[in-house]
């Protein structure tokens, strides 16, 4: 199920929605900024970046849970 997302507007172009992520500066940018100010940077479509972050978050959560379980077991053993 997709959750609704808030509309985010560009800091430099207040009337334009962000649609790209500049990985060099770690910011969301609009198409104008992507073309004008960030064209030499590695820019991704915002939705792709969000999907990657969700997958990475899920993986990290699994690792944290595994470490937590190991710590609990080691405390029970001692």
Structural description of this entry:
It is a single chain. 49% of the residues lie in helices and 12% in strands. It has helices spanning 31-36, 46-77; strands spanning 20-22, 27-29, 43-45. A hairpin with a 4-residue loop joins strand 1 and strand 2 (27-29). The radius of gyration is 19 Å and the shape is elongated.
Strand order of the largest sheet: 2-1-3
Summing up helix and strand content along with how strands pair, one would put the structural category as mainly alpha
Q: Tell me about the biggest sheet?
A: 3 strands, antiparallel
Low-confidence stretches: none
Average pLDDT number: 77
Order of SSEs: EEHEH
Shape: elongated
Oligomeric form of this entry? single chain
Number of helices: 2
Strand content: 5-15%
Amino- and carboxy-terminal Cα gap: 44 Å
Number of strands: 3
| Rg for CA atoms | 19 Å
Share of helix, binned: 40-55%
Question: What is the structure about, briefly put?
Answer:
The protein is mostly helical.
Features:
78 residues; mainly alpha; three-stranded antiparallel β-sheet; 2 helices; 3 strands; 49% helix
Write the layout of secondary structure elements.
Elements: E1 20-22, E2 27-29, H1 31-36, E3 43-45, H2 46-77
């Amino acid at each position: 199920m997709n959750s609704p997302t808030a509309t985010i507007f560009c800091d430099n172009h207040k009337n334009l929605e962000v649609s790209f992520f500049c990985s060099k500066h770690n910011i969301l940018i609009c198409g104008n900024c992507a073309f004008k100010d960030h064209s030499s940077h590695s820019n991704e479509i915002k939705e792709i970046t969000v999907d990657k972050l969700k997958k990475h978050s899920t993986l990290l959560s699994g690792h944290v849970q595994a470490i937590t379980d190991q710590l609990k077991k080691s405390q029970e053993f001692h």
